[in-house]
Specification:
This protein is α/β, with parallel strands linked by helices. It folds into 2 domains: 251 residues, 3-Layer(aba) Sandwich (Aldehyde Dehydrogenase, Chain A, domain 1); 184 residues, Aldehyde Dehydrogenase, Chain A, domain 2 (3-Layer(aba) Sandwich), CATH 3.40.309. The protein has 14 helices and 19 strands. Helix 12 links the parallel strand 12 and strand 13. This is Aldehyde dehydrogenase. Belongs to the aldehyde dehydrogenase family.
Amino acid sequence: MAGRRRPANGGQYFDCDNPCTGEVWARVARGTAADVDEAVAAAREALSTWNGLKPSERGKLMLKMAELIDTHAPALAASEVRDNGKLYAEMLPQMRSAADWFRYYAGLADKLEGAVIPTGRPDMLTFTRLEPLGVVALITPWNSPLLLLAHKLPTALAAGNTVVIKPSEFTSASTLEFAELFAQAGFPHGVVNVVTGFGSEAGAALVAHPDVAKVAFTGSEEGGRRINQGAAADFKHVALELGGKSPNIVFEDAQIDAAVVGAIAGIFAASGQTCIAGSRLLLQRSIHDGFVGQLVDLAGQARIGDPMLPETHVGPIATPPQYAKVLEYIAIAKEEGARCVLGGGPYAGSGTSGGRFVLPTIFTGVDNRMRIAREEVFGPVLAIIPFDSEEEAFQIANDTPFGLAAGVWTSDMARALRASERLQAGTVWINTYRTGGCSTPFGGYKHSGLGREGGVEAIKEWVQTKTVWLCGKPDTNQPFVMRH
């Protein structure tokens, strides 16, 4: 923190293992409330320095940071692969994307403009000021630590805030490496701080800290609920990007080959460990059997193994608790009466000894009332649900506590437009799945979260709006009546 690494106040550390091998590869400081206090104090002290810079100067520093991310992208990507087991082939482009987020918001740093408001009063000048919130907390997950940090951090910095980051205890190494680049880029000390540790210790202390103005969190529904409750005690601003049980809907008039590929991309990419996973595949009954046959054939060809190898399609499950959870849900699905047509358990092929691998798994005969269709698995497990009519498809799709994303495959553009209106989701993909970018808003409906990340409007979620009434002709009349 404040530009340098140091041990935790308590002197304790914890181990991080490689999910591909099970071997410990990093030891990370176990931060406590005392470390959070120091990090928040450093961020608070840096506020005046950071806001003393011209907005364009802050933007230039962010552009420099983007250059450094590009330069260090291979090393950062490799660190994330060791931490969470996702494919290097995906992590490297994610690092490039993180750089793009810094460039995008660097360009907005000097474009936070208030407005002069016409009130119809000739003796008044009324205008608004957009001011930073102050010290903000960013709590990130283990599945894509740096990309999901980039969804928050550059926006907060461009708006003039200073930050304290708490990465997942399962994937802290890449965030620590990333944070060191800020000093190289020339950022003032204390603008960006990292406290590593456990959610119940460092995370809880950060959420409860009285000098933190906003908490932004990406993670599970339950984690988001706890953070929202904790932040409410001090009326902190909150942004939550939580879970999903996203429907991927295929109509009979779709381009079937493309939809099969899209269904696989939606659930088996990243081993299903993504909040936008298309974990419910809704198939029109007339194409159900043929589609399932193609899907099983193609998904069954997926190569499982070392995520650093370019030929690997499916890597390991990132954490021991998540590995156990995925296998538990597979067992639940079987108990509920769903039919397993692919996979259905651990994978122990060549080169995977000690790792946490699960076979790509597909269930048919799923009813939307089953737990496998209603609860987030966060693994390579697909539930297939048949439907007859468009209306039934939309009803099933919306019958979930979540609303993060949805996919629709159809050649009927009128239907596509109806779907974009009817589906209760923050993102709707038509004839594609699992894509995004820094210029487009992202967030969820219902239990999938609060607020939006990305796009021009997102920066306003990191500022407060102040209205100023400047009177050019003070009134000396009746003081007991409000002026109108």
